[in-house]
Structure formats: C-alpha cells, structure tokens
C-alpha cells in the first residue's frame, strides 16, 4: 500500500511536533511520500513562518530593516535543529537566502523558503531522502501544473529511495523560476503526488480530527463526520467549512483516491475519510440523515418584482448582465412567478450596489425593487436526505418551531443540499435548531 502523508504547519511547529510526525510516519511503512508545510504557530502569540516571510518581503519593498524578522525565522529553525540533534547546515542556508534577498529575489522564492527549510530538517530527522519541490513540481507559464512533466521528474527523484520528503506550496516554472501556490497550497502538492504515484490513500495531517458536523464555535463538541463524499465536501467547503484546500480535491478525485483527514495530536483518531462513493460503508454503518451544517453571514438579496416577468424572454439574462457588468459573482437566484431574487455577498457590492440597481431599473423597468441586507446562507448537506421523504418540510417546520424567519430557500436537484437564507441575527439560532433536531435527537434514539 502506498500512502502520501501531508503534514500541515501546526504538525511541524516545533521539535515536539516533529517527534509526533516521526512516530506517525514510522508506524506505517506505506507512508513513503511525505509532504510538509512551513512551520506553523507554536502558540497563539507566535507567528507562522510564511507570514514572517511575507512581512520580510514587505519590509524589503519599502526599504525598512527586516533584520529582526529574519532573525525570528532563523531562531525558530535553529531551535528545532538543536532540540532534535540535527546537522543540516542552516548557517549556509540562511546566508544564501539573505544574499538573494539583498539581490532583489522574487517574492515567490522568499516565501517558499519556509517549506524548503522545514523539508530539509524533516528529511534528516526521518532519515528520508529530501527532494526539492522545485526539482519536481513543474508549472506551465499559465500557472497550471504540468502533470506529465511532474510525473516524470518525480519518478526519477524517488527512484531507489525508501521514503522521500517534498516541501509543499511551491514548484518551478519552465525557466526554473520558483512559483508558489495560493495559501494552503501544500494540500495541492500532496494531492498531485498522490495522483502521480497512484496512492491508495492521501492522508492530510492537521490539528483537527477530521470534519465536524457543525462549527464548534457555535455547537459545543459537535460530532465528527466519519466519512463524506467529494460532492458533499464541495458543498460544505464552499459555504465555509475549510479544513482542506478546495483545489486539492481534483487531482485525487480524478483517480478515485480517498482523502483521510487526520489529527497529528490524536493519531489514533480515524478522522474523516473523503470518498467518491460511501455506499459500501454506509450499508454497514448508516450515516445521519444530515452529513454537515455550515454557512456564512454577510449576504445581500436584490429582489426584482415585475408582473409576468417569468414569461418575459431574456428577463433573467438581462438581470444577471447588470451584475456581470460590475464583476459581481451571483450566489443564487431564487425565482417565483413575478419575483427574481439575486443573492450576492455583501462585500462584493459595497462600492456599486446602487449603480447595479440603477442599471436594473433602466433595463427591466420593474414594478418594484427591494434590497435586503444582513442575510445569512445556511447549507444543510447530506447524501441521505434524498432517502428521507419530507425532509424539506421537516426542516422548515423546525425553523417555525423556533420562530426563525426564512428569507430564501433552495434545494439542489440531486437533493444533496438545502440552502436556507435567514437574517444574520438568526444564524447561530438556526444552526442550533437543525443540529439539535436532526443530529442530537437522532443520536439519542
């Protein structure tokens, strides 16, 4: 069995965390490909290495001394080296970085050094081969990853090695220039490697034991989700459940490789398994009717009322054109016979809401136009909902029992997701109502 194990910043924050990683890696000989993030925070008042590197770049850009920040980064790695008794020549590494900073090195190169240095130390500590991501992760000039070239380079780099460590987050352009991904990009590195080596599972080690049914800041000690489909994950991630980088799903889903979200600080916890199809496991252990509850505040609804608008050819296109003109992404468009509601994120229309409204009025001549602000969107996700007749009605009834005013409601055609719009002031109350009724009560039966 081949496993790709990616360890996040909290998993490599200090020597104690390094020791936990080593124990996890050595517990399973299948963990042959190790991907690491840069060192994360040791405590709430600490700083992530990547954040410090971005600050150094800003200081350089504005011609401000960066010495104290640079020393903070160096001290962190020197302490890990000393605590673990390692021999990696960090003096040489940091001298080279400082030399390149003074020579106006690229931002991408500078901020990639967190993963690079963490990878160097972790490889020595694990007794594994170190492979610089710049030598294997190949980008095209359009910014996409060249899977074919990356696969060829990875195969050569891994030849003869029992285990390799690869820094995440960055790679190289065809001309050799370092290129970084978006924040959290180490998740993508791990997923790409899992795809290329045809891994049996992609383990993503972080500081949480998988996905939770609801936000623990709202629900005290919510249940862990033991397994979730890729489609459910996409729905939950879009509405705010962020444990895994969105773009990390595609490379592994392409080859039906499951993702296992695990906790470095609780390695015996099985975490959450993300799969294309959970039906086989569901048959042995039936899931809750609701897989997860997530959502976000801060939405605005522009409600356009016009008699017979649903029969007016091109009405919806003209309405959406007004938002496209101002580069505003539309979240959803609930429709009735004479009303079209366009829901957008409030911050997206902060600067141009009234220009959009004016455009709509001039183009569509509505009978009325109303703006509703301070709205929340709550997504109730569950592959079992399609098998529970009357689920939508039961959900609406529960909102009524708690005097929660429903502003909008929509359901996906595959019955995987029901999205309910409520006032921001009812957001937490609504999530509690759903969790208590459909999770807590079902658990206690």
UniProtKB/TrEMBL annotation:
What is catalysed by this protein?
A: L-aspartate + ATP = 4-phospho-L-aspartate + ADP
Q: Name one GO biological process term.
A: lysine biosynthetic process via diaminopimelate
Q: Which Gene3D superfamilies match?
A: Acetylglutamate kinase-like, VC0802-like
Q: In which pathway does it act?
A: Amino-acid biosynthesis; L-threonine biosynthesis; L-threonine from L-aspartate: step 1/5; Amino-acid biosynthesis; L-lysine biosynthesis via DAP pathway; (S)-tetrahydrodipicolinate from L-aspartate: step 1/4; Amino-acid biosynthesis; L-methionine biosynthesis via de novo pathway; L-homoserine from L-aspartate: step 1/3
Task: Report the enzyme's class at the first EC level.
Answer: transferase
The record's listing under SUPFAM superfamilies reads: ACT-like (SSF55021), Carbamate kinase-like (SSF53633)
Under InterPro entries, the record lists: AceGlu_kinase-like_sf, ACT-like_dom_sf, ACT_Aspartokinase, ACT_dom, Asp/Glu/Uridylate_kinase, Asp_kin_monofn, Asp_kinase, Aspartate_kinase_CS
What's the superkingdom here? Bacteria
Residue runs in coiled coils = none
Q: Where does substrate bind?
A: 50, 115
Catalytic activity, EC: 2.7.2.4
Domain ACT stretches:
380-445
**Keywords for this protein:** Amino-acid biosynthesis, ATP-binding, Diaminopimelate biosynthesis, Kinase, Lysine biosynthesis, Nucleotide-binding, Transferase
* Amino-acid positions noted as binding ATP in the UniProt annotation, renumbered to this chain: 6-9, 206-207, 217
Q: One of this protein's Pfam families, by short name?
A: ACT_9
Citing just one GO molecular function, the answer is: aspartate kinase activity
A Gene Ontology CC term for this entry? cytosol
For this chain, the family text in UniProt reads:
Belongs to the aspartokinase family.
Q: What does this protein do?
A: Catalyzes the phosphorylation of the beta-carboxyl group of aspartic acid with ATP to yield 4-phospho-L-aspartate, which is involved in the branched biosynthetic pathway leading to the biosynthesis of amino acids threonine, isoleucine and methionine.
Which protein, by its recorded name, is this? Aspartokinase
State the organism named in the record. Grylomicrobium aquisgranensis
> What lineage is on file?
Bacteria, Bacillati, Bacillota, Erysipelotrichia, Erysipelotrichales
């Amino acid at each position: 069995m081949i496993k790709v194990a990616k360890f996040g910043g909290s998993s490599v924050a200090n020597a104690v965390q390094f020791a936990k990683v080593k124990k996890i890696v050595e517990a399973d000989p299948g963990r042959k490909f190790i991907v690491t993030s840069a060192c994360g925070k040791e405590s709430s008042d600490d700083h992530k290495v990547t954040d410090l590197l971005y600050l150094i770049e800003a200081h350089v850009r504005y011609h401000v001394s960066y010495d104290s920040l640079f020393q903070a980064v160096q001290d962190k790695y020197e302490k890990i080296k000393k605590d673990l008794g390692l021999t990696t020549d960090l003096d040489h590494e940091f001298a080279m970085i400082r030399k390149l900073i003074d020579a106006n090195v690229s931002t991408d190169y500078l901020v990639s050094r967190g993963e690079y240095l963490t990878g160097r130390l972790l490889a020595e500590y694990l007794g594994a081969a170190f492979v610089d991501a710049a030598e294997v992760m190949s980008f095209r000039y359009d910014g996409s990853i060249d899977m074919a070239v990356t696969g060829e380079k990875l195969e050569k780099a891994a030849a003869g090695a029992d285990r390799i460590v690869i820094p995440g987050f960055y790679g190289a352009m065809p001309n050799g220039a370092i290129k970084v991904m978006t924040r959290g990009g180490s998740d993508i590195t791990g997923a790409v490697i899992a795809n290329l080596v045809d891994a049996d599972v992609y383990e993503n080690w972080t500081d949480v034991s998988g996905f939770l049914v609801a936000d623990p800041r709202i629900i005290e000690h919510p249940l862990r989700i033991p397994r979730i489909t890729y489609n459910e994950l996409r729905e939950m991630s879009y509405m705010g459940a962020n444990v895994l980088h969105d773009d990390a799903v595609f490379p592994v889903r392409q080859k039906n490789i499951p993702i296992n979200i695990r906790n470095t600080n609780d390695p015996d916890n099985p975490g959450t398994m993300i799969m294309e199809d959970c039906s086989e496991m569901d048959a042995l252990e039936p899931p809750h009717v609701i897989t997860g509850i997530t959502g976000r505040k801060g939405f605005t609804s522009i409600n356009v009322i016009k008699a017979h608008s649903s029969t007016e050819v091109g009405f919806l296109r003209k309405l959406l054109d007004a938002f496209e003109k101002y580069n505003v992404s539309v979240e959803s468009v609930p429709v009735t016979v004479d009303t079209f509601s366009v829901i957008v994120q409030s911050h997206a229309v902060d600067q141009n809401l009234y220009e959009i409204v004016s455009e709509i009025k001039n183009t569509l001549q509505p009978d009325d136009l109303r703006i509703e602000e301070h709205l929340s969107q709550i997504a109730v996700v569950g592959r079992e909902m399609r098998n529970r007749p009357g689920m939508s009605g039961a959900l609406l009834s529960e909102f009524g029992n708690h005097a929660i005013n429903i502003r909008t409601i929509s359901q996906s055609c595959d019955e995987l997701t029901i999205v309910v719009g409520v006032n921001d002031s009812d957001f937490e109350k609504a999530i509690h109502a759903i969790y208590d009724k459909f999770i807590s009560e079902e658990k206690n039966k």
